[in-house]
Task: structure prediction
Amino acid sequence: MAVFVAGRASAPERGAPGRSAPERYGDRLVRGVPVGFAGTPRGAGDAAAAYVVAVPAAAGRPNVERQALIDTIAVDGSGPAVAEMMGAGSPSADGEGISQTVAARVWVPDADVDARVQQGAEVTARLLLCALSGSATDAVVAGPETGLAGGWYVQSVTVRWTLDRWRVVAAQRPLPVPPPDQRGTRRDGGPRDTQPLLDVLSGRSWVPGTV
Result:
């Protein structure tokens, strides 16, 4: 399931003798969240994917930690809305449970993804996500209500390049899309709308953190 975290912001480079290896986004962390993304639309997409993954994972943490994470990735004033729309919400009463989002693909419509952006520029990235939620167990006893819920979604996230870092401005609510094991039909055999998947299947989308 570690689709995003295994990626890199750029392809490995073979440096000349004596040259240090290029910096990876994972080498720069703030409160455990990678922030070393390039100032390009591709970097914006990778940042959006990383943030969408990080916020739901913090749902069970203490309020202070969750708020600190939101403050790290969001522009001033957008924290509460971003937290709600990106799935952080409120943790369960006992603080135990599974809340995980995996970013499978990302794309930035109508953009030169490798062009440098100016300070203050905003980029809207689109993401194909798989979200999972459920109650934690002791790995021995499972009650009648135990289960794992989830689904596939497409979500738009707008980020702003400020002080050489991408910060979230807004995020739309995720829109459900058919799971990838369906080709042209619903489970009942009827036709389904494939329009939401056209961008996912295009050559303009990529696995977050890769070229």
